[in-house]
Amino acid sequence: MSPTLKELPLPPAHAPVYWAEACKHLVKKDRVMRRLIPQFSAEALQTRGDPFITLARSIVGQQVSVKSATSIWKRFSALLQAMTPANVLLLKVDDMRGAGLSARKVDYLVDLALHFTENRLHVQEWEQMDDELIIAELTAIRGIGRWTAEMFLIFYLLRPNVLPLDDVGLLKGISQSYFSDDPVSRSEAREVAEAWKPWCTVATWYIWRSLDPQLEA
């Protein structure tokens, strides 16, 4: 039998402050969440690194496997005493290319570093800014699209109601859990997520978890 609301265990200490409330809502409103949430109740989303490193890693990881991205990031990081925007701007292009970065990704990383060093980003105001305003600001950086900006909202700012409809894993998980593996359109995924609001981030995290139990939180 599925657990009652009172039987849901407390989330881990690193969980966002809203996590327990979100889980109660999702278990009550959604049959799939009622099954998934108890399976992974010992884990929860947690914030990653600092904003520059989070975005830089997302650029390095574009269009390559997780294994390749990890290897390139390790070599790239080894070029620096500390991964900061100012230090990245001091690197030689040839050294960055030697770490395995494409010419395009070198350009993207330099543009990202310039946005931070030239204070083009409202980093101190992000906590108070609307999700869409942050997405607009981040997607003005070369190499950062909406999906990357949404991952930033989820994994760095821990925003509670992000629905990344461009995410292949989310659509695959919804297909498996709600549509018996039939292909799912963005509009169908949006309909499923109506029951998740205002906690789409939390439901998305559990969908990802259902696909890969070893997913990095």
Structure overview:
The chain is mostly helical and about 220 residues long. It has two domains: about 5-45 and about 160-210, Endonuclease Iii, domain 2, CATH 1.10.1670; about 50-155, Endonuclease III, domain 1 (Orthogonal Bundle), CATH 1.10.340.30. It has twelve helices and no strands. Helix 1 (about 20-30) packs across helix 2 (about 30-40) and helix 3 packs antiparallel against helix 7. It is elongated and about 55 Å long. The two termini are about 25 Å apart. The model has no long low-confidence stretch (mean pLDDT about 90).
Largest sheet: none
* Termini gap: 27 Å
In CATH, what is the homologous superfamily of the largest domain? Hypothetical protein, domain 2
The secondary structure category is mainly alpha
- Domain count: the total is 2
Element string (H = helix, E = strand): HHHHHHHHHHHH
CATH architecture tag of the largest domain: Orthogonal Bundle
Approximately what portion of the residues adopt beta-strand conformation? under 5%
Specify the overall morphology. Answer: elongated
Give unreliable regions as ranges.
Answer: none
Gyration radius (Cα, Å) is 19 Å
How many strands appear in the DSSP assignment?
0
CATH fold label of the largest domain: Endonuclease III, domain 1
Q: Mean pLDDT score, rounded?
A: 92
Short description:
The protein has 217 residues and is mainly α.
